[in-house]
Structures are given as structure tokens and as C-alpha cells.
Amino acid sequence: MARSHGESSGSRRMMMAAMVLGALASTPAARASPPPQVVTDISKYCQACWRNARLPADRWEDCTHEVFVRLLERLGAEGWTSVLDAEDTQERREFLRAIDTVRKRVQRERKLQALPADLSAPAPLLLPQEEREFLAQQALHLLTPRQQRVLQLVADGWKVPDIARELGTTPARISDEKYKAIRKLQHHLGL
Predict the structure, then answer these.
(1) Domain end marker among 60, 91, 111
(2) Helix 129-142, helix 171-189: angle, nearest 10
(3) Which of the chain's ends, N or C, has fewer CB atoms near its CB within 10 Å?
């Protein structure tokens, strides 16, 4: 929903209240629709929750709308008058559960955004070519072929669980082989 810069948060809440009441009027729950002030108060409470949870401000209206939809589905409009009561009622618990569910979903969405293509591939180990060749020569003489393969994959940026899948073994076994291979090289090179 596009907003003009001059539009106040109070007028947005009133618009939200009007939309909710309009939606209520078209449902069977219209017999007991809540007073406009209850809708405005719930909207204000939701806005404070989104702000405290540091959700993106452009998502607040959608989040509040989703809370209203959840309340309508679970409580019906007649239960809305007691959601802001200080007492621990079933309606209040349902309201807080709706807010928490919406908040967690939005926070998960932000975390699960796709990585850019250049970050999704493993990053190679940044060693100069001469050092890599020297270590490869040392590894040929000291390490088993499997240890060499493990260290090569590590140097190419692979993670232990991925190496384990590639070599058909467990991550614990790969970690052990990697540790032993590195210790052999360190001992041989006097590090």
C-alpha cells in the first residue's frame, strides 16, 4: 500500500480500522463487530510490538493486518474487546500468540533471504600459488591419499559436513583426518 509522506500514523491507523471494520461487515461475525476504538487500540499495540522487534517499518501494516486476520479466525470479532485487558484471558493469550507468530515469521524471512551468487560458492583458501605447491609437495610425501584429498577440499573452501558427504563418511571422521594431516605437516615443517 503506497503512502504519501504527509500521511500521519494516526490517519493510517484510522484507515486500518476502516479496512478491518469493512472486512468484518462482510463476514458472519458482523453481528458482533468491535467498536472502532478497539481496532485502533489493537493497531497501536501491534505497531509498538513491530517497532520493539525492529521489524522493517514498511512491513508493519501487513503484519498488523495478519494479526487481525488471525484474531478474526480464532476469536471472532466479539472476543476482540478483551485482548488488551491486563488479565490473563484466553483472548489475550491468543492475541499475543498471533503477534508472536507474525513477528517470528517476518524475522525468519529476513534471515533466510538468498545469498548473492558470489557468496553461495565456497571461497578458496587464499594462499599464494608457490605456498600451495610447496604444501602439496610436502603432503605427497607425508599424507595418505585420503588425507591429501581432505586437505585439498578444505583449501578449496569446502566445509567438513560437505566433505563428509563427498567422501561418504561422517563429519567426525573428516575432522579427525583433517586434524591428523595438519599435525603431520606442522610437525614435519617445524611449525
Answers:
(1) 111
(2) 100
(3) C
